[in-house]
Amino acid sequence: MNTVFVNKKILWILFSLFCQLLVIPAHAAENTWFSDFTGNVKQTWQQPEHYDLYVPAITWHARFAYDKEKTDRYNERPWGAGFGQSRWDENGNWHGLYLMAFKDSFNKWEPIGGYGWEKTWRPLADDNFRLGLGYTAGLTARDNWHYIPIPVLLPLASIGYGPATFQMTYIPGTYNNGNVYFAWMRFQF
Fold first, then answer.
1. Which among 3, 136, 160, 187 could bridge 116 via Cys, Cβ 3.0 to 4.6 Å?
2. Residue from 52, 86, 105, 158 carrying the catalytic annotation
3. Tens-place pLDDT, residues 117-155
4. Residue of 61, 86, 95, 158 with catalytic role
5. Is residue 31 part of a domain?
């Protein structure tokens, strides 16, 4: 059997399972992490406090995990943009839904969309300055994978002041694959 066909079938099954998880009725998962997750996604969708502009800033391939020939030819300027909506909960934590498209390592367009959450700290007397740690869960698609939807669950970190936030993630991987730092600016309006 063709390897590409098998990979597509596996990815399609994973994508289908991911979509089914998002539509499980809330009463089927009461008082669980999953009901909290779906409740936060729903509230962020239905009651956004802000809209967000996303501007990709940098992708960096960890030099310890790549051959120099590969990093020399990879794109590390992820031109693109995105849009989202977000809210701050009663604990001061950030919740966001987003859709972004950017130029990937091969200089091909890569869309990504999903939900992000960050526990937020305000360590200074000035409430405008904040630090955040959390995660994002969503879907992406890449040219080198024939634009098959791929589920992602990645860490998030940020530093922000007022309406501007520098947000980032790290895509883990193996040698010559993954191990990429990706960061963007998020402007809230």
1. 136
2. 105
3. 999 999 998 889 999 999 999 999 999 999 999 999 999
4. 61
5. no
Q: Is 104 a catalytic residue?
A: yes
**What single letter denotes the amino acid at residue 71?**
T
pLDDT digits (tens, 9 = 90+) for 105-119: 999 999 999 999 999
pTM score of the predicted model: 0.83
- Helical packing angle, 3-22 and 33-46, nearest 10°: 80
Active-site hit among 86, 95, 104, 158: 104
Amino acid type, 55: V
Work out whether strand 94-103 and strand 129-140 pair parallel, antiparallel, or are unpaired: unpaired
Is residue 146 part of the annotated active site? The answer reads no
Cα–Cα distance for residue pair 139/153, rounded to 1 Å: 9
Q: In angstroms, rounded to a whole number, what is the distance separating the alpha carbons of residues 149 and 10?
A: 11
Catalytic annotation present for 52 = no
In a domain, 68, yes or no: yes
Q: Identify the CATH number of the domain in which residue 99 sits.
A: 2.40.160.20
- The answer to whether 40 and 46 have CB atoms below 8 angstroms apart is no
- The number of distinct structural domains making up the chain is 1
Tokens 């936030």 label which residue?
A: 165
**Domain coverage including residue 117:** 53-188
